[in-house]
Specification:
By secondary structure, this protein is an all-alpha fold. Helices cover about 50% and strands about 0% of the residues. It contains 3 helices and no strands. The two termini are about 30 Å apart.
């Protein structure tokens, strides 16, 4: 795992800013999401919340959101394929 440098804090914060407003999957945050409940606080407090995070915390949240979104998109695609009768290629 790579170590983040101080210069990475700004891009991470910019990446997380829209995620604290709403889940990018346009649904409720999953119950185990580290951002669950964050939309219930006002904008100013969300800004303070982000400012108080360490680089490690921001990196964790960014990675969590990336994996969650990818997993959800994979599920949507799989369900869509299944509904449309698509059978995955099982050739080995």
């Amino acid at each position: 795992m790579s170590t983040l440098t101080t210069s990475s804090a700004l891009p991470l914060r910019a990446y997380l800013e829209p995620l604290v407003r709403r889940c990018p999957c346009q649904t409720d945050y999953p119950k185990d999401c580290p951002l669950v409940g964050i939309t219930k606080i006002d904008e100013r407090m969300r800004g303070k919340f982000l400012s108080a995070l360490t680089e490690a915390e921001m990196s964790f949240m960014a990675a969590y959101c990336h994996v969650c979104r990818t997993t959800r998109l994979d599920l949507v695609t799989a369900n869509s394929d299944k509904a449309n009768g698509h059978i995955p290629n099982k050739s080995v």
